[in-house]
Amino acid sequence: MAVKKNGIVVVGSVFVDIKGFPHDRYIPDGRNAGYIEYRHGGVSRNVAEDIANIGLNPSFLGLVDHSALGQDVIERLKRQHVNTEYMEAVPSGMGTWLAVFDNNGDVAGSISQRPDLMPILDILNQRGDEIFQEADAILVEIDIEEEILKKIAELCKKYRKKLYGVVSNMTIAAERWNYLSSFDCFICNLLESGILFGQDYSDKTPAQMCDIVERQIHKAEIPALVVTMGEEGAVYADCEGHKGVCRAMKVDVKDTTGAGDSFCAGVASGLTYGKSLQDSVEIGTRLAASAIASYENVCPEIDPEEFGLS
Question: What is the pTM of this model?
Fold first, then answer.
């Protein structure tokens, strides 16, 4: 496995996650005694750290603000061996995600304040050729500002780089429908897939959903699509006729928020470094399980040889 200077380049936002956990059974609309934690967050930031935690030295192209917390985000990524040379500090460069969890570790409600990511376009205009030439692949939040997404798609085409899509806000992402064919693989959850395709899939079995995914990739002209289904696992299909179901692993659930990001990191890493779609989804499933069993937003450090990646 020959990793280039920038490895997988992850493009997107940094958030401060404020999480509230109840001490006992969560009561909606009630006063719940508990505790509050502050974590570094953001889908793309989490994905970058997840990729680093399996030893693949990614790069992160994103923004922080000028606060001590913003500098702390950069220092943590550096400690985890994420290349941060393309990050910049700007006013209001980070978003905030406020969430309350129930006693099962699931999100009971949340509110997010998105940052302005347009300075990323300036970075791409100035250093995009350098970044993409030295990248193994690109992973981006599809709900990023459209001008940025357009520039990324152009650079991927120019340098023949694989492009993977992940979701932060599916309502916004659904407006980027015309970019779906630019992605080598798009990854989302069951609810997000329903928003994307204008259907309610909540009652579908994994086998039924697998057939739906196979049909939808041809309609939307997406080379490959992976849909996670929580405790039911994940389903996948690509335009070459490969499809299947990957069952979820049984773990002691502590915090589910980082599971989707870890899953995306595993799928993108597998596909970038020579694994089949099936094997890549299995890697994602293992990383998601390890994240769920932790109170961290990311998976623990794992030897890449466990996945056949070195």
Answer: 0.88
Q: Could you tell me which residues are beta bridge partners of residue 238? A: 224
At 173 the pLDDT is 86
Q: Which long-range contacts (CB under 8 A, 24 or more apart) does 198-204 make?
A: none
Please name the residues in contact with 44: beta carbons below 8 A apart, sequence gap of 6 or more: 10, 11, 12, 13, 14, 60, 62, 139, 140, 141, 166, 168
Q: What is the pairing mode between strands 15-22 and 34-41?
A: antiparallel
| Length of the chain as a residue count | 310
What is the distance between the alpha carbons of residues 224 and 181, in angstroms, rounded to a whole number?
Answer: 9
**What contacts 24+ positions apart, CB below 8 Å, involve 125-129?**
125/151, 127/86, 128/155, 129/155, 129/159
For residue 211, CA distances in Å to 138, 194, 241, 282 come to 28, 14, 11, 19
- pLDDT for 150 equals 97
The values of phi and psi at residue 33, to 5°, are -75, 140
The 10s digit of each residue's pLDDT in 42-57 is 899 999 999 999 999 9
DSSP-derived 3-state class of residue 197: helix
Half-sphere exposure of 84 (CA within 13 A, CB side): 20
- Report pLDDT digits (tens) over 78-116: 999 999 999 999 998 999 889 898 988 788 888 888 899
> What's the rounded mean pLDDT across residues 194-202?
93
**In angstroms, what is the C-alpha Rg of the chain?**
18
